[in-house]
Amino acid sequence: MTRRSPWRNARGQACGLRDRAADTGLVIRAATTADLERIQAIEVAAAELFRAIGMDAVADDPPPPVEQLEAYVAAGTTWVATDPEVGAIGYVLVDGHAGWSHIEQVTVHPHYARRGVGAALIDHVEEWARGLGQSCLSLTTFSSVPWNGPYYERLGFRHLPEPEWPAYLRSTVEREADHGLAAWPRTVMARSVKQPCPGKNHG
After folding, report:
1. Residues 187, 59, 176, 96: is their CA dihedral positive or negative?
2. Helix, strand, coil shares of the chain as percentages rounded to 5?
3. Containing domain of residue 59, as a range?
4. Helix intervals (H) in 76-197
């Protein structure tokens, strides 16, 4: 994670995969500055889930500041999943690196959990990454929180051994440790877009 005190994290659609967004009636579009207040509200609501499992420091972490969200909007690397009746119900932030698309954050409002929203957002990121010729998605997350590590495993992510980390992932893990994330087990995960992930010398 590259923004704020990074407590929370997290496929674009691979060839042959069903369109999750269409299946759920969602529209996924590029975020605009008009979405930023709603993105912050989604993050605050989702954070409360961590309080129920004794991770109060995560629950108390503030949402990403507007300035950082504006930078993602300007870069064209943040998307929102929208419901026709209520507007944005989830979002994803992405950082690009050599051959990799790093999912900095993917969050769904808890009222809309377990409906395929997060998976649809990740599918959208994969489709975008494929268009850029990138070969791998990555993320860092809590390894044992049910809606973190185990969830991403179900979406086809694998735990990435440290020798395979590119430079940016190594820096991300170190930065997160400096913010106190090592208080809970963490993991680095990756999933190929169209070919094996680039080796550790990329980054």
Report:
1. positive
2. 40, 25, 40
3. 20-192
4. 117-131, 149-154, 167-178
Supply the pLDDT for residue 84. 87
> How many domains does the chain divide into?
1
How far apart, in whole angstroms, are the C-alpha atoms of residue 49 and residue 110?
8
Q: Please, where are the H alpha helices in 52-132?
A: 56-59, 66-75, 117-131
In a domain, 15, yes or no: no
Nearest 10 degrees: Cα torsion 53, 2, 135, 88:
60
Q: Is the pLDDT of residue 108 over 80?
A: yes
7 domain-assigned: no
Domain assignment present for 13: no
Q: What SS3 state is found at 39? A: helix
Count CB-CB contacts under 10 A for residue 182. Answer: 11
One-letter amino acid at 114 equals R
DSSP class of residue 86 equals T
Residue-averaged pLDDT of the chain: 86
